[in-house]
Amino acid sequence: MTTKRSRSGFRRIATAVVTVAALGGALVACAPQAGAGTAEGSASDLEAALEAGGTITYWSWTPSAEAQVAAFEKAYPKVDVKLVNAGTNTEEYTKLQNAIKAGSGAPDVAQIEYYAMPQFALSDSLLDLSAYGLDELEDQYTASTWGSVNIDGKLYGLPQDSGPMALFYNATVFDQFGIAVPTTWDEYIAAGEQLHAADPTKYITSDTGDSGFATSMIWQAGGHPFDVDGADITVDLADEGSAKWADTWNQLLEKDLLSDIPGWSDEWFKGLGDGTIASLVVGAWMPGVLESSVPDAAGDWRVAPIPTYDGEPVSAENGGGGQAVLKQSKNPALAAAFLEWLNSDPESIKIFGESGGFPSTVAELESEDFVNQESEYFGGQKINEVLTQAASDVLPGWSYLPYQVYANSIFGDTVGQAYANKSDLNAGLATWQKQLVDYGNEQGFDVKG
Amino acid sequence: MTTLSKLDAPAAPSPSKVHGAPTPGRKVKARLDWRGWAFVGPFMAVFVLVFIAPIVYAVYLSLFREQLMGGNAFVGLENFGEVFTDTQFWESFLRVLLFLVVQVPIMLLMALAAALAIDSARLHVAGFFRIVIFLPYAVPGVVAVLMWGFIYGGNFGLAANINDLLGFEAITPFAREWILASIGNIVTWEFVGYNMLIFYAALRTIPTELYEAAELDGAGPFRVITGIKIPALRGAIVISTIFSIIGSFQLFNEPNILKPLAPNIITTFFTPNMYAYNLSFSGQQYNYSATVAIVMGLITAVIAYVVQLRGSRKEER
């Protein structure tokens, strides 16, 4: 459909405009038309593909990828997997998007986070894995991660990790100032006031506006701001859950209780190490990051369940993602076979867990070994007890926009302004909503909001 | 042309015949000589490929609109109409315009002062100063901005140290009201040396006889500057100004690299180039992005042309 339109458009312009324009048009025509590998396959094809061997490319930024690829190649010597680190999240998505747009250059298998999955599914650039029978793996994964890779009844990827949210706090700082671990958001705000009053250089947490964090917090508050049904979308960033979060967070923001150190900057890691930032509300993949990037604070940090609004345990997913097979793949059966091994073979999942990843597979989450593992960094605490509990407390029914990567990119322009001015987040969310509605309608969706 | 065709003709017609009717059956004038193209051919091929084709492709893109849902459609000049009412675009344009009128004069005056000082022959180790002032230009732009990002850091950077020393927040480079000045400072630091070198090179071309004559006429050093050096620099100043205008309108590296450090202050449409970049790479609005780039290119070309006209008119006087 797209193909025909662009071709007739090309013809129109080529005849209408002078020869010079035809040159440009010729360049456009060079881009191959979408969808090379749409071959139907079955489960037996995967075995055959592994037997036959071949070469595939895999884009990932997970620390475990190298060891996983090595183990795979050892198990299947005929297969050669070329691992490429094409950058972390949006960096990779930009490259992936460009390769899809150009019609060539995309890898066979790529790491895609849950929030970005709908965007790539929508552009019809991912293979429906149920063609190879991978939908039968459903029971292996947690419901929330499985739901994140199933879009409109098609299976676009296999989950790798998950990020149920928990409260990570610096116990040394908490003890020093006699702060009890908060279980509700009211207590969390009170803890923030107490800490900052006792030592003005310290903050309960840092937040300069992070779309991933904000959407997860709205998720935890029971909000459903994005309702997606094919091309019909409703954006309501003023729904009960969204407002609940904004009203709560407003208190921290307006009382100047949030550190303005931007997340993931060098200053941020330093602040996590020296007690300037005393806690973080973040996904379960954080322990690996703390261990590798904040080694000085070993023994200081602990994990507790995420505070809630009414004391009843409830959590949300923050980050996490899986891998998908690109339609551009010339060997989709082999790519799917690699993906199946990567995210369901016990050996691969073991490697993933050892590198600090938090799995999405039920077997691992329920295994005694995993749950009772004592973390040296966290002072011997059995952190997985807390984190696996968080995984089962995740609220179901959340969905992201089919253009969430773009939505997140303009978060700073909109909600970020409320952060910068220390003003009402509800107003910032309203601006974000307006721009998301406008963009969606411009892009051919039917967006209400 | 005539010379070439004369060479072509094996039997050169006599001068009297040139003015008469051409020899029947031989169209000397109409015959095209393709030998010249063999020489410019390689250049033209590369020129068309890397200059003409991208521009034409951008123009082609700007006439279409491709949607995530619903495919591609020809929209004529609709995208251009949209640019003219796009508040984000004009906000970013006004921002770089403000940057231009403040930063460029400061930078060029500093470069001029440095060039005149080094050329004055009154400076000890002039060669040392020349290389040190030029050195920042040799530092890769991205590295320079990262380094300044550390210096500007409000919590652990040099700015934080000074604030600690003074006891209050004296320096806030990433605050909304200072961010443009902070970027201007980086750009000035980077490009003073480059512009100084252009000026200095122009100063070295002034014949020494002029200085001797001025000395004999009793002109002091400042009279030499206003009477000889500045007029001789006019062409170099025009060139530097045009380069700086283009550079200001294309401001991208510095704000884009500082964005993670000031995520809410530096928006995705902070400068026109950042706007175009984010439109295409996060918004997938390739068509509109191309339109923004074309409009910005046209504005830059017009302003640079006006500056050149004014500059050369003064020169004729």
Task: Explain this structure.
The complex is a heterodimer of chains A (449) and B (317). Chain A has 449 residues and is α/β, with parallel strands linked by helices. Chain A has two domains: 43-162 and 319-366, Periplasmic binding protein-like II (D-Maltodextrin-Binding Protein, domain 2, 3-Layer(aba) Sandwich); 166-316 and 381-448, D-Maltodextrin-Binding Protein, domain 2 (3-Layer(aba) Sandwich). Chain A is 47% helix and 13% strand. In chain A, strand 9 and strand 10 form a beta hairpin. The longest helix of chain A is centred in the C-terminal third of the chain and has 18 residues, at 425-442. Chain A starts with a helix and ends with a strand. The relative contact order of chain A is 0.17. Chain B is mostly helical and 317 residues long. Chain B has three domains: 1-33, no CATH class; 43-76, no CATH class; 80-316, MetI-like fold (Orthogonal Bundle), CATH 1.10.3720.10. Chain B is 71% helix and 3% strand. Chain B has a two-stranded antiparallel ribbon. In chain B, strand 1 (64-67) and strand 2 form a beta hairpin. The interface between A and B is large, with 51 and 41 residues.
Question: Can you tag this structure with a few keywords?
Answer:
heterodimer, A: 449 residues, 3-stranded antiparallel beta sheet, 21 helices, 15 strands, globular, disordered N terminus, B: mainly alpha, MetI-like fold, two-stranded antiparallel ribbon, flat
